[in-house]
Amino acid sequence: MSLLTVEALSKAFGGNVAIDDLSLSVRQGAVHSIIGPNGAGKTTLFNLVTGIYTPDSGRILVDGRDTTGLAPYRMAGLGLSRTFQNLQVFFNMTALENVMVGMHLHCDSRFLPAMLRLPRVVRRDAEIAGEAAELLRFVGLADSIGADSDAMPYGALKRLEIARALATRPRLLLLDEPAAGLNPSETTEIDDLIQKIAGTGVTVVLVEHDMRLVMGVSEHILVLDRGALLAEGSGEEIRHNPDVVAAYLGEEGRYL
Amino acid sequence: MRLEGLATPRYGGMLGLAAVIAVLPAFLPNNFYFDVVILVGLNAIVCIGLNLLVGYAGQISLGHAGFFGLGAYASAILTSTYGWPPVAALLVGAAAVGLLAFAVARPIMKLRGHYLAMGTLGLGIIIAIVLTQEVELTGGPDGMPVYGFSILGWEPSGVLMWYWIVGFLLLLTVWLALNIVESPVGRALRAVHGSEAAAQTMGVDVVHYKVLVFVVSAVLASIAGSVFVHYIGFVTPSEAGFVHSIELITMVVLGGMASIYGAVVGAAILTMLPQLLTFLHDYEMLGFGAIMMGVMIFLPKGLVPTLARLIRERVR
Amino acid sequence: MFTEFLQFLLSGITVGATYALVGVGFSIIYNASQVINFAQGEFVMLGGMMAWFLFEQAGLPMAAAIPLAIAGTVMVGLALEKFAIEPARNASIVTLIIITIGASIFLRGGAQLIWGRDFHAVPALSGDAPINISGVAVNPQSLWVVGCTLVVTILLHWFFSRSMTGRAMRAVAFNMLAAQLAGVNSRLILMFGFGLSAALGALAGVLIAPITLTYPDVGIMLGLKGFCAAILGGLGYPYGAIVGGLIVGISEAMTAGYVSSAYKDAVAFVIILMTLFFMPNGLFGRRGIERV
Q: Which residues contact A203 (CB under 8 A, 6 or more apart)?
């Protein structure tokens, strides 16, 4: 059962073709990775799927439903959530508040009741705070529950974004380079976290450059090159695919 | 209620503000001082709304006096020319301003940064020009007088009555604003400021919230304008002008972004400052400009957040 | 009928040329620093006021007063950059806007303090006698305004496309970090930008003063309308500001002549709202994409 499908998707910025007639599909359950050299269009693909960019042509289907051209804020309601390659943490809020924003769709966000501080809003907010704290513990940030996000270290912020994305209760979680800038031991922690998330039934798709993480955690790998799908399969298949090795793995393949 | 609870903006802050409002009249020697304090209160109401827009939601408006002026003239015209009851005029004025803000908000809120600044500036100036030119309706550049204010027959007599009215309205505004800020709506606004892309991804309809906060801040300005005009008894187009808009945004930025009490402090300081600077006579404008630049360069977060952080660091 | 139209057109071109010069100043500073300088109008005021002061009070001939007034304004512009903009370089947009607004108030306050609030006349460059061009009475000073704007446009074109400094400025506007990595001293560019904008503003002020009289508050509306011109043309595109200025000036004159002189001042702001709603990047600007 395909949770995410793109059909003949194309997107160009000026003269630069970022996504070129791309078709792929992501099965429900399991952890999938999208890899490819820089400029292959991985983050652009995420931005297209989450509605931040509008495709020039082609379709995007989430859970069978055509979401092409839908406004980005609608995607969370359809079970789609993501983290960002260049941290988009709400630095003007605490860690807890960041995660609470993730629960926006699940709280009482009506204006008049909020302005009049009706008991229902207050009660729901207290529940939300509790759930947000739970999520912070889930990703290993129990110590940062009261912290200001602009005082947290980089590695913690990566995990904060994941907690926030999980707060929307997604069925499909897109992680954009969750291990970027992390050292090997932090990367292992991310590996464990991703598996923990997959264990709760969330389908995870990650974009990554760190081959050890990719090979260790994914059941299904898609290789993008110059905006098109080059190959897909299991870690073993990809590793031995000559096109992929030629286009991308190159030197790094030797260390796996 | 534990003692720590008193340190929060909600309980401690409101209690403190209420105490100040209750006790202040004993210290004010004559009507002139009451006048200044009442103006502080009215400016503070506008600034709280403006702070929601600028400080919390991260937008900007250089034309907010336009909404203040529209509320003022709506009340002036409906009561003095058409004999409406003042409270009805105030409510209708606020509704009309809300509708205007709603109509303009969607296209304007698509703009960012300087373009948004310029768009709101243009809107404010156009409103001021219309108010100046429609002499038949508004009395033109010389303004028009406003007669009598009564709530269900009761007329406030004397400056002390007005003081209590404005004081009450200020406390009410602070309470409502704190409620908004501490709710999912407030978090959504701050998310819009923090990162629009991430906010969208979390399901926050960014455009909806920008429009919402713009309309709310416009309506607050309109209500303050209506009350102002009944208190003063007169209205001129300068209430909607560019200079007034700049004063308002400066109050917000000076007092502190994303801080309800910052808005109150900023309004207080900048309303009282010209009075304090009159002794400088010809140096007044020079001094005002110098203070604006100085504060923005050295205390960019504004007074209240900077002080709050200093206190927190000492306590640690 | 036609002469009336020509009259309005010429008056529109004259005032439009002023807006153009102010607008170019905005665009240049924006390019060098991403800052909207709300004190731009005050450069215009200072040019006119200093010229009046040097001519009237110091007894200098206009030939000396004008360049000195421009030089004086340039000094003010550089001081503004050094003491108000430089220290707050990393501040938010709102903060920077408030700083330049504060600078505008400061400069106006200073002018009022030194020279008083009165309106002052400045002699025209070639006399007041109107020249008759096909039935239209043309103020010779208008010809000076338009002529100088044309010369400035040509000089700026040469400057931005041929000279090293000009090209460095374009590089900074395009991508500051890359320009710095290529060896461009962005601080110097910033100072130069402010100096050049001040010079352009002062020139506009000196040229327009004989027509409109000069007084401390003359810069407010001129500055705002010059800003409208810059946005119409596309913020950061100096040629756009020139075209924008002319469009605003002519629209204003036509509105005053044919529709209602009361709403003349509103024209520039209606134009800017329409621009922002329908073509936010202006006539010549290009659309950008936010990368996340």
A: A3, A4, A26, A27, A28, A29, A30, A31, A32, A171, A172, A173
Can you read off the two tokens belonging to residue B94?
């606020």
CB-based contact C263 B115, cutoff 8 Å: no
Contact B202 A104 (CB under 8 A): yes
Any A CB within 8 A of B198 CB: yes
Q: DSSP states of C210-260 as a string? A: HHH-B-TTHHHHHHHHHHHHHHHH-TT-HHHHHHHHHHHHHHHHHIIIII-
pTM for the complete prediction? Answer: 0.89
Based on the domain organization, do C231 and C261 belong to the same domain?
yes
Disruptive mutation site among B126, B137, B238 for chain C (greatest number of C CBs within 10 Å): B126
Tokens describing residue B177? 């604003």
Long-range interactions of C68-74: CB distance < 8 A, separation 24+: C69/C202, C69/C205, C69/C206, C70/C199, C70/C202, C70/C203, C70/C206, C72/C46, C72/C202, C73/C43, C73/C46, C73/C47, C73/C198, C73/C199, C73/C201, C73/C202, C73/C205, C74/C195, C74/C198, C74/C199, C74/C202
Q: Å from B151 to nearest chain C CA? A: 37
Which residues of B fall below an 8 Å CB-CB distance to C? 54, 60, 62, 107-108, 110-111, 113-115, 117-119, 121-123, 125-126, 129-130, 133, 197, 242, 246, 249-250, 253, 257, 282-293, 296-297, 300
Q: Are residues C78 and C163 in the same domain?
A: yes
Averaged pLDDT in 10-residue chunks for chain C of 292 residues: 84 90 86 84 93 87 88 94 86 83 92 88 81 77 86 84 78 75 80 89 90 86 90 85 93 89 88 87 67 46
Residues A163 and A182 grouped into a single domain:
no
The CATH number assigned to the domain holding A38 equals: 3.40.50.300
Please answer whether residues B166 and A68 qualify as being in contact, where contact means their C-beta atoms are separated by less than 8 angstroms: no
Residue in chain A lying closest to B204 (CA):
A73
Based on the structure, what is the number of domains in chain A?
2
Within a domain: residue C19? no
- C290 DSSP assignment: -
C4 domain residue, yes or no: no
Total domains present in chain B: 1
Does a structural domain hold residue C276? Answer: yes
The Cβ of residue B163 has, within 10 Å, a number of other Cβ atoms equal to 21
